[in-house]
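ingest -> validate -> predict -> emit
validate: passed (alphabet ok, no gaps, 210 aa)
predict: started
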Amino acid sequence: MLDPYLTGILLAYGVFMIGMFTPGPNILAVIGTSMSIGRTEGKALALGVATGTFCWSMLTALGLTALVSTYASIMVLLKVIGAAYLLWLAFKAFKSAMTIKELEVRPVHLNGGPLAFYRRGLLIQMTNAKAALVWIAIMSLAMDGQAPIWVASLVVVGTSIMSAVGHVIYAVAFSTSPVVAVYAKARRWIDGVLGVYFCFASYKLVTYRP
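emit:
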């Protein structure tokens, strides 16, 4: 029962995991907070971001399921939107790979302990306007007009776990200066690989059939 949807689910996981290597507002906040304030605060912020990931994935899964059950043909449009956004991410990654720039971290300064940083992480993720497009692309890779609800559930659970683990790893690793230095040296290569994968994912999104 899993076989027809396994490729799409793995592609969705792949896009999400690769996206974790693209420094956006959430990751830059985690890195900056861990570097400038402390590892504990960075981890609290990371878990808040991961909770936001779970919320976005749930909202997208429920929304797509409701839309597709009412208008089956809308899935084609959503796949086109998702593929176009993945190509845009590829363009940004290639552009970044060709430029020399410093890592612009964004430390979050708060009073109130880890709980305050957790809430700020959740707020940062939930107010990220681009998250909706990202999740349309991710869910469209795994789902089609006939996909059962458990397919979306696997994507929600899997990406939420990856988000929690990945952002905490960022918080722990980037609280040490050697990791920051290594990342700065490898950034352009990382961006180039990200661009290639986003192009591949965009192609698979418009051609994949479960």
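The chain has one domain: 25-207.
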